[in-house]
Write a structure and sequence with these properties.
Elements lengths: L1 E7 L6 E6 L7 E2 L6 E7 L5 E5 L8 E2 L30 E4 L3 E7 L8 E7 L2 E7 L2 E2 L2 E2 L7 H12 L7 E4 L4 H11 L3 H12 L12 H4 L2 H9 L7 H4 L17 H6 L4 H13 L2
Parallel strand pairs: 10-13
Antiparallel strand pairs: 1-4, 2-5, 3-6, 4-5, 7-8, 8-9, 9-10, 11-12
């Protein structure tokens, strides 16, 4: 699986497939200028590819654009996505090329038709989380409720394999860290802050897992320093610590104290309210 991250200028929640170039990986030249991401994902065996969340076409140019003039590409996404031709059911799977398995994960809240995409190619696992999960944060509840976001983050996404890399729809890590430091003063937050300050892009560098349970902190930081990517989103992401009794045997009341709440859904609601005011 080959993944190219593409900064874009205007978000479009659509999923295109397929695109085939027999001899080379599909590539995109010219990129947007905002904090929105699109992703070009290619099956290395067949060179079939998909574009996830492509934005405003005038902002970028595809190589051999003439090849696309007469193509009618399927658009796979939520039922309300622009030009959508297919909406998979929750946990429905399909293939890209020969090796990539895709699972649709419905995560209603930011929008009611929100879908995250889990892709697996051999031992490699990635999830494209759109406006649901960001590095160190989550999306606003534009069309949903705190209970829906709690389910999306802490059941649907938190239940993925530990080593699943996260590719969000926006580069919001610096803003998220600024908020995190007000509610969670921990070494992982400091490490994330340092990483964000020294790297313009953080997508694909972190996984979904609560590595605090699986690995000693020393090993975590060693993985960070060697550029292998951090794997403890539930350790620094306050929105994934609303019910920390499930993460460890000793309940850490830090987030509860910061919000003045104890029920996980109420904690989620208060965290989002606090973040919105920043």
């Amino acid at each position: 699986m080959h993944i190219q991250s593409i900064p874009m200028c205007e978000y479009r929640a659509v999923f295109l497939l397929p695109y085939h170039r027999p001899n080379n990986f599909p590539r995109i030249q010219g990129v947007g200028s905002s904090n929105n991401y699109a992703y070009l994902v290619t099956d290395e065996a067949s060179k079939d590819a998909v574009i996830i969340d492509p934005a405003n076409p005038p902002e970028y140019a595809l190589l051999s654009l003439s090849e696309f003039k007469d193509l009618k590409l399927p658009v796979i996404g939520g039922k309300d996505c622009e030009s959508v031709t297919r909406t998979p059911k929750h946990e429905e799977t399909f293939q890209i090329g020969q090796k990539i398995s895709v699972t649709a994960l419905h995560t209603p809240c930011h929008t009611q038709d929100s879908i995250c995409w889990l892709m697996v190619d051999g031992d490699e696992k990635v999830v494209f989380t759109g406006d649901t999960l960001f590095i160190g944060g989550c999306g606003r509840f534009f069309e949903g409720t705190p209970a829906e976001m709690h389910k999306a983050l802490n059941k649907t996404l938190a239940g993925l394999p530990d080593d699943t890399k996260v590719y969000p729809g926006h580069e919001y890590t610096k803003q998220n860290v600024k908020f995190l430091t007000t509610v969670l003063q921990t070494e992982p937050v400091k490490k994330l802050q340092s990483f964000a300050e020294n790297n313009e892009q953080t997508q694909g560098k972190f996984t979904i897992a609560d590595e605090k349970v699986r690995y000693p902190l020393l090993e975590l930081f060693s993985r960070y320093l060697t550029g292998m990517g951090l794997t403890f989103d539930q350790e620094y992401n306050a929105f994934m610590r609303v019910d920390v009794s499930k993460l460890s045997s000793q309940k850490d009341p830090t987030i509860q104290k910061a919000t003045g709440k104890t029920d996980p859904v109420e904690v989620m609601a208060k965290l989002r309210e606090m973040k919105n005011k920043m």
